Amino acid sequence: MAPDSPTPLGEALQQLARAQRARLAELLAPHGLHAGQDALLWVVWQEPGMRQAEIARRLGVEPPTVTRMLQRLERSGFVERRPDPSDARLVRVHPTPRARLLEAAVRRAWDDVEAEIAARLGAARAEELGRLAREAADALKRREDPSAS
Backbone dihedral region of 47: left (phi > 0), alpha (psi from -120 to 50 degrees) or beta? Predict the structure, then answer.
């Protein structure tokens, strides 16, 4: 544990998150994507035409963060923002054909990271780590949203 770490578990979770983010960034960089953009694109691939506020909610980030990410993705030609057909004040986000070409590469990057973890931990321990991480995330979500109980 680092001397300034609040807890061993907290430090381990931060190290894991940083390592995963760095490895994904390495794998996605050749495709012109930056860390976090893959998750945003995945949401848009699953539900084209989603509103920016909903994307922010799904990703668990603030709307201005999504706005900045979308601006960058739009400049790169991966998404387009269009006015909502029924309410021009709202904006809907759509993947471009160029973005659709990246879907398999993003999935492969995510699979590669999981395979690297499984190679180090073994398949059963990696699966257990995933289960525990989901349980921990669910526990924290319930704390912030009492209606989730």
Answer: beta
Query: Tokens at residue 148, please?
Result: 């989730």
Q: Which residues contact 32 (CB under 8 A, 6 or more apart)?
A: 76, 78
pLDDT of residue 4: 64
| Angle at the Cα of 76 from the Cα atoms of 75 and 82, rounded to 5 degrees | 55
pTM: 0.82
Average pLDDT over every residue of 111-134: 95
Higher pLDDT, 6 or 21: 21
Contact (CB, 8 A) for 41 and 74: no
Name which of 35, 85, 22, 95 is nearest 65 in CA terms.
35
What is the spatial distance between Cα 19 and Cα 28, in angstroms, rounded to a whole number? 14
Confidence tier at 149 by pLDDT (50, 70, 90): very low
Q: Is 86 exposed, middle or buried (0-12, 13-18, 19+ CB in 10 A)?
A: exposed
Going from the C-alpha of 7 to that of each of 12, 14, 133, 135, 139, the distances in angstroms are 9, 11, 17, 19, 18
Is residue 137 pLDDT above 90, yes or no?
A: no
Beta bridge partners of 83: 91
